[in-house]
Design brief:
single chain, alpha+beta, two-stranded antiparallel sheet, 30% helix, 30% strand
């Protein structure tokens, strides 16, 4: 899990306490849809 979060330029926090369970928090950067579309769309053809 840590490797996947790191591959996405995020951070993973794990907190655990006996008798209280474990909490995982993944923080991932978000990009706007227009940025993602621009990066993935092929160049316009004439």
């Amino acid at each position: 899990m840590r490797a996947r979060v790191h591959a996405l330029d995020g951070t993973l926090t794990v907190e655990s306490a006996p008798g209280h369970g474990t909490t995982l928090a993944a923080h991932l950067p978000l990009t706007s849809p227009t940025e993602t579309e621009t990066e993935t769309e092929p160049e316009a053809r004439p």
